[in-house]
Structures are given as structure tokens and as C-alpha cells.
Amino acid sequence: MNNDIFPCLWYDGDAKESSEFYCKVFDGKITADTPVVMNIELFGQKIMLLDGGPQFKKNASVSFMVICETEDEVQKYWDMLIEDGMALMPLDSYSWSKKYGWVKDQYGVTWQIFLGEKQGEQKIIPTMMFIHGNNGKASEAMQLYTAVFPDSEIGNILRYGDGSEGHAAAEPPENIQLGHFVINGYSLFCMDNSYDHQFDFNEGISMVVMTDDQEQTDRYWNKLVSNGGQESMCGWLKDKYGFSWQIVPKKLIQLMSDPDQAKAQKVVQAMMKMQKIIIQDLENAYHS
User: Is residue 268 within a helix (H) or strand (E), and if so which, with residue range?
Assistant: First the structure.
């Protein structure tokens, strides 16, 4: 499974507690435990939890679809996630799944738990909701993302006009009820929604892309920014839809993890001044 692309969840002091909770719910394991970053592995998939402070709150514009093989499995995850959380769509039988529910857990992360067929190896699939000014742009976004990244394709698409029942009455028939796409071997879902939600994409949930070299870093960064995106700091950018990406050279992690704390700190300080990460500048700081 490709763990060079993975979601990052933003926390305000409770990343470790949340990590332990998800590992308990999904029988996962913690793979990195630092004061700022926790990495966990659920079903072989990497998720990063970042204790970044109070600036950003996670919301349902990005949820996590968990594809289950039995009704008992759906029930098990639902029962654990709903504790101190809330149901966004009740656990029930729907046209698209015999057993499905959408829950916001106690840490503000939303999960769509359902009985269905897995899309390749991935059991947990980040799901982007295109709302407000982005509503109707899910199809365009899939085209952009699959053009930016290699080993990409657009998979099955269900449009609201395809005859499925449910809450589709208010939606334009050409809009996407659920679209599956793959970037660099990593599966995502997307959906259009015309409801006036009180949230939208923000830095609370982003996607991290680990790169092999400067050429790859430049290519992803430049394509996402030049197509109406916006540069941010420390390898972060927003694409034209306001969705956040972190384009991170593997070399940065390697240098920041150096046992020589003074050298590692120089690298961190250099990185803090950058927008796009420049590997040569990191190495210069390391050797200075």
C-alpha cells in the first residue's frame, strides 16, 4: 500500500489521546509518538495527527469512509465512534448500503461507516465534500488531481441523476453523489453537496504527499499552485478549491530526525522560513 500519501488531522493538545482512541477502535498501532506529531497505522494505512494549536477545527468537508465486510463490523465501529460523539446520518439501511451511518466522533473527525465493496486494498477512504462555491466542481477536481499525480485514474462515478433514491432531490442531476479516484495509487472519494453547511475545507484536515526529490516536489507544488492555488508556509499550500496539501520531501524528515539535536534544529528553523520546501537549502542549514 502507498503510504507516501496520507491524511493529516489537526489537533489542539489531544492528538495522543485521539491516536490511542483510533488504535483501539480499529485495532491499529502508533508508529511515531512526539510532542507535536503522532503517526498511526490503521489497516496498514498511515494517518498523521498534528498538535498544531487552536487555529483550525476539523469538520465534515473531509470525512473518512470505512468500508466494512459485515453488518456486525459496521455496528462495532459505530458503537465506539458514537460514544461522546453525534450522528450526522443515523445508522440505518439506505439505497446505497444495507447498513450505513455518518458519525462525528468526540475529537471532531467524521466517519462514514458502511457495508460495501472495498476499492482495492484501502479500507479507509478520505472523502471530500464540494460545497458552497465548490458545489458542482467534484468532477473538475478529480480531473485536476489525476493530472497532477502519476499512477492516477478516475474510477466509478455515481451522479445524483443516476436514479438512486435518498436525499438527492435538491441536487442537480449531473452533480456527483459519490466519485472514486486514485492519485499515486491512493484512493479518495468526492461528492457534491448543495446544502448550506456552516463549514468548508480548511487546514483542519489536509493531505500529505511525501516526495523523493526536488523535481517531484516542484512538479506537484507548481501544478497545484499554478491552477488557481495559493502558497502557504512550511510546505503547505491550498489548491483552487481551498483544500490543503503538504508537499514534503522525504529528505526533510530524514534531516529533522537527526540524533544531533543542534543540526536537526537548524533544519527546522530553515524550513519554518520556506513556502515550498527547497532541499538544497535544508542541507545547507544542516551543514552550516
Answer: helix 261-272
CA 21 – CA 58 distance, rounded (Å): 17
Per-residue burial over 39-54, b = 16 or more CB atoms within 10 Å of its CB, e = otherwise: bbbbeebbbbbbbbee
Tell if the pTM clears 0.70, that is, is over it: yes
- What are the tens digits of pLDDT across the range 138-156? 999 999 999 999 999 999 9
**Residues 208 and 48: beta-carbon distance below 8 Å:** yes
* Distance (Å) of CA 173 to CA 164, 192, 194, 196, 197: 11, 11, 12, 18, 20
The CA radius of gyration of the chain, in Å to the nearest whole number, is: 19
Q: Which of 245, 238, 250, 172 is nearest to 210 (CA)?
A: 250
Q: In what order do the strands lie in the sheet with 153-159?
A: 86-94, 97-104, 110-115, 62-68, 124-130, 186-192, 176-183, 153-159
| Contact between residue 111 and residue 81 where contact means Cβ atoms under 8 Å apart | yes
Which cell numbers hold the place of 89? 446520518
CA distance linking residue 91 with residue 74, whole number of Å: 9
C-alpha 170/C-alpha 14 separation (Å) is: 38
